[in-house]
Amino acid sequence: MVDISAPRAVVRAPNLRLWVPLCWLTLVGIAAVFAPWIAPHDPLAQDLMLGRLPPAWIAGSEPGYWLGTDDLGRDVLSRLIYGARIALIVAATAALLAGLVGSGLGLLAGFFGGWWDKCISRLVEIWMAFPPVLFAVLLVAVLGTGLGSVIAAIALIDWTRFVRVVRAETLVQARMDYIDSAVIGGASKLSVLRHEVLPNVLPAIIALLSLEMGIAVIVEAILSFVNLSLSSDAPTWGGMIAEGRASIYFAWWVLTFPLLTLFLTVLSFSQLGEGLKRHFDPVQT
């Protein structure tokens, strides 16, 4: 007889929303870190004699130019690789700064409540009244172009997203019985916030960081598209898209490859955030 009372092993389906985007982002990260060794050409080197060369699998291409060249004869693949370095630096730094500021304020508002909550919530409402993209353009115009200005503009805009999410998660955790037990045991409020609440809110913060990195990549691409990010000849994905738009009928690859790379990277960050949320949430696993 079969013992039906014996426990059965639970087989979990692979979390494709976590692993598939993670593979793509790992590939982009490797390209960004090892760009000087991976890129086949100097991303700024121009040769008008090699302008608008097609990709390697199309007739008329030249050896070594796998994704073709743009109007000025610059290698598209090399510019994509160096553009990944700029995109990831902006994404990681801006998301981390916004996360630190927003998560700290969200924890204070959700746990202490009272005038902390009122002041922080009113500040968030006022800040969110400004259209984010236009606000980013205004900040960069005031601060001046450059990588630091782009990072500062994105961080100054998106910290409010962390405040709202972390505040909501903290309010839920603050009503749990383990919080009352810690307070009765003699722990101070700051100690409870740091050792009890923060570890339980941290999964939501990590998932939101991933989503924010995707948003930062989009904002940087928008700013570089309108020439408000780095210099016009810098290998940014947004700048490549702006340059490729003018030659779409003559050299489609100049626009297509950076657009596709941007789309896959932003989509991967978005799906990675959902995958991390599912991974950390016991209800969804």
Question: How many individual β-strands?
Answer: 0
* Count of the separate structural domains: 1
What would the average pLDDT be, to the nearest integer? 85
| Shape verdict | elongated
Give a verbal description of the structure:
This protein has helices at residues 16-33, 35-38, 76-112, 114-127, 132-143, 147-174, 177-184, 189-225, 237-245, 252-280. By secondary structure, the protein is an all-alpha fold. The longest helix has 37 residues, at 76-112. The protein has one domain (16-280): MetI-like (MetI-like fold). Helices cover 69% and strands 0% of the residues.
Record the SSE blueprint.
Elements: H1 16-33, H2 35-38, H3 76-112, H4 114-127, H5 132-143, H6 147-174, H7 177-184, H8 189-225, H9 237-245, H10 252-280
Helix pairs in contact: 1-3, 1-10, 3-4, 3-6, 3-8, 4-6, 5-6, 6-8, 7-8, 8-9, 8-10, 9-10
Provide a brief overview of the structure.
This protein has 10 helices and no strands. The protein has helices at 16-33, 35-38, 76-112, 114-127, 132-143, 147-174, 177-184, 189-225, 237-245, 252-280.
What distinguishing features does this structure have?
285 residues; MetI-like fold; elongated; mainly alpha
